[in-house]
Design a protein that fits this description.
CATH class of the largest domain: Mainly Alpha
CATH architecture of the largest domain: Up-down Bundle
Helix content: 55-70%
Structural class: alpha/beta
Distance between the termini: 66 Å
Largest sheet: 6 strands, mixed
Shape: elongated
Strand content: 5-15%
Number of helices: 22
Radius of gyration: 37 Å
CATH superfamily of the largest domain: ABC transporter type 1, transmembrane domain
Number of domains: 3
């Protein structure tokens, strides 16, 4: 139950509600007990026809009231005898019935009030967990997502959190209330008959062991089910993102069959879980009734043979034990439900406990401007520690302010990784990167990234308006500023023709626009940020000739008076760069201007000839 108590730590912000819940639960249990305890005088009125006993009770006078079973029993009998003689048995019976109705009314009133105050705890805790999981996904480095399936992460953020809501949080009330309920009735059972209660306690542990063993099995099955849901979500995500290819290659049946097989496995696991869950209530009821029959036998012998117990007390004891079965069943169901939810809690905890490797040091420096140069100093990088192959190996590079540096080379040569290390999407394994002589690891991450604008090959846009996409991440932006940025990015013309202009929703990932339009939107976003450093990653490689020209013009406007790191496959787009860095297998193999590299007749020259031939 360690993870369950780990979840309960979120309750600490809701102690005000928790205290009221506990208070009203106590009152509910008290009135529940009184509604049952009044059964004894009720039975006494119905079954007591011994006039001699009544006369003896009245002659002895009112007994002194103390807290003990015999004293309470004697006092109740005296009250019944006294009121029965003065007003008649019918009057006493009516009074007892009214007391029972009042007790049940207050029991249910306080029960509702307890539930009323547990509701904001249950829903608030789930909200807090969901927020924490989402914030964690934002904090984790990009390297974490290269190792995990996106569908599995989405599954943890959605179905696992929902499982906690349904399985754990909805069981909170039972877990807080039922032990109190059980405790009160067990105490009263001891008061009525210690012997019978000890017999019950000998038999009950056998049922508990059986229930716990089934609960552990349920938790394992639940873990498998949540993992399988992650696979299903991954298939859904891949399918929606690759519909063009799936349809183009007539692969609908293959994809559908794969999903069908995984979905069938999910169904089989879910069926097993449902059957185990459904076993909880009938199993606990059967075992409870079996114990009740044993108590009925031993109690019956105490009444009939030994004469050590009154019949009314035995009936009251049996009713209390039966009442004990209800919270016991609820607690069993809650335990099964919690075991199922804890499987999800462990998966969420694994995400929450994942190490954030890229974070600020304890006292980071603050920078607000870029003045001199960027330096890569003996930089080496591997995605995982202990790898024999380096993605980058002993990179030394200086980028002066205002200069444009181009990175070229084959796919997998390390160009994008080299650029991604500048905004600390990845950290160096060896060596360091400096801005104006200060290592970026010693600077606030937000300050480092505030100096940079990024335009990638795939335009990352959001299902929102044009205005909000361009102004993304920037506060207090006016429409005039957004329009000016769009004009610089050659985007104003097509935006102004949209149905609602800058307030037009662009659809999922900008699906309502062409590739060139999406890219110019991304450039407008970078223009509005007005960063001193630009990172352009294959910004024109996926465009047609006309769109490339418009985007290239927009990039030229963007790069004016800025320090730029440009990753390019098309060498025609970087011929005017101040320095071109040629990379191969994580190494810099050539460097210089376009003219200098052509004259060397090396790798760059061969790349240029191949593209010129094409």
């Amino acid at each position: 139950m360690k993870n369950f108590f780990g979840i309960l730590r979120y309750v600490k912000g809701y102690w005000r509600y928790a205290i009221w819940n506990i208070v009203f639960n106590v009152f509910s249990v008290v009135f529940s007990f009184f509604s049952i305890a009044l059964l004894f005088p009720f039975l006494n009125v119905l079954f007591s026809n011994n006039s001699t006993e009544v006369a003896t009770l009245l002659a002895a006078g009112e007994p002194r009231f103390v807290i003990s079973k015999d004293s309470i029993t004697a006092y109740i009998k005296y009250l019944i005898a006294h009121n029965g003689q003065e007003h008649g048995k019918l009057y006493v019976l009516i009074a007892i019935c009214l007391f029972v109705v009042v007790a049940i009314f207050f029991k249910n009133l306080f029960r509702y009030l307890a539930m009323y105050f547990i509701s904001p705890i249950r829903n608030g805790v789930v909200r807090d967990i969901r927020n924490k999981v989402f914030n964690k996904t934002l904090d984790l480095p990009l390297s974490y997502y290269s190792e995990e399936k996106k569908g599995d992460i989405i599954s943890r953020m959605t179905t696992d959190v929902q499982e906690i809501e349904w399985s754990v949080m909805k069981s909170l009330e039972m877990i807080f209330r039922e032990p109190l309920n059980i405790l009160v009735f067990v105490i009263m059972m001891f008061v009525i008959s210690t012997k019978l209660t000890l017999i019950a306690f000998v038999l009950l542990p056998l049922t508990v062991l059986l229930i716990v063993s089934i609960g552990k099995s349920l938790k394992k099955s639940s873990t498998k089910r949540q993992e399988k849901m992650g696979v299903l979500l991954s298939i859904m995500d891949e399918t929606l993102g690759g519909l063009r290819i799936i349809k183009g290659f007539n692969a609908e049946k293959k994809v559908a069959d794969r999903f069908k097989d995984e979905n069938q496995e999910y169904r089989n696991i879910s069926t097993k879980i449902s059957r185990k869950e459904d076993l909880a209530s009938p199993l606990s009821e059967f075992l409870g009734v079996s114990v009740l029959i044993a108590i009925l036998y031993f109690g019956g012998t105490m009444v009939i043979q030994n004469k050590t117990m009154d019949g009314e007390l035995l009936i009251l004891y049996l009713v209390m034990f039966a009442q004990l079965l209800t919270p016991a069943k609820s607690f069993t169901a809650a335990y099964y439900s919690v075991q199922k939810g804890l499987a999800s809690a462990e998966r969420i905890d694994k995400l929450l406990q994942a190490e954030v490797t890229i974070k600020d040091i304890s006292n980071p420096k603050s920078i607000t401007k870029f003045e001199k140069e960027i330096e890569y100093k003996n930089v080496s990088f591997a995605y995982r520690e202990g790898e024999t192959g380096w993605v980058l190996n002993e990179i030394n590079l200086k980028i002066a302010k205002g200069k444009t540096i181009a990175l070229v080379g084959q796919s997998g040569s390390g160009k994008t990784t080299l650029a991604d290390m500048l905004p600390r999407f990845y950290d160096t394994t060896q060596g360091e990167i400096l801005i104006d002589g200060v290592a970026i690891k010693d600077v606030k991450i937000k300050d480092v990234r505030a100096l940079m604008g990024i335009v990638t090959q795939e335009s990352i846009l959001f299902n929102d308006t044009v205005f909000n996409n361009i102004a993304f991440g920037i506060d207090n932006v006016t429409e005039a500023q957004v329009i000016e940025a769009a004009k610089i990015a050659n985007a104003h013309e097509f935006i102004s023709k949209m149905p609602q202009g800058y307030q037009t929703n662009i659809g999922d990932r900008g699906s309502k626009m062409s590739g060139g339009q999406r890219q110019r939107m991304s450039i407008a976003r970078a223009v509005l940020k007005n960063p001193p450093i630009l990172i352009l990653d294959e910004a024109t490689s996926a465009l047609d000739t006309e769109s490339e020209r418009l985007v290239q013009d927009a990039l030229s406007n963007l790069m004016k008076n800025r320090t730029s790191v440009v990753i390019a496959h098309r060498l025609s787009t970087i011929q005017h760069a101040d320095e071109i860095i040629v990379m191969q297998k994580g190494l810099i193999i050539e460097r210089g201007t376009h003219t200098e590299l052509l004259s060397k007749n090396g790798s760059y020259s061969k790349l240029h000839e191949m593209q010129s031939f094409v």
